[in-house]
Amino acid sequence: MPANKKTALTGALVLALSSPAVHAQSARQLKREIDELRKQVQQLIELTKAQAAAKAEPEPAPAAAPAPTPVTAAATPPAPAPEQDQATRDANTPATQADVLGLRTDLENYKYEQSRTAERNRASVTRNTRIGGTVQLRGNWFNPGVAAGQANGATGGNTTPQATGRHTSFDVPAVTLSFTGNLYRDYAEGKNLTYQLGFTTASNFAGSPSTATSASRTLGTSSSGGTQFNLTNANIAYSFEPTNGGSEDRKGTLTFGQQQVPFGLEAQTTEEIRPVITSALFTSALSGINQRQIGLIYRGDAFVDVDWTNNYRVALLEYAAGIVNGSGPNKSDNNGRKDFLGRAAFTVPADYNSWLRELKFGVSVYEGFNNLVNTTSNAVVQVGKSRRTGFDINYTHLPYSIAYEFAQGEDETFTTPAATASDTTPTFRKKSRGQYVNFGYTWGEQFLASEKTLAKYDDYWPKSYQAFLRFDEFDADTRAEIVGDRTRITTLGLNAFFAETTKLQANYLIQRNDLPATGATADRPAKQHGIQVQLQYGF
Question: Fewest CB atoms less than 10 Å from the CB: which of 69, 305, 315, 463?
Answer without folding.
Answer: 69
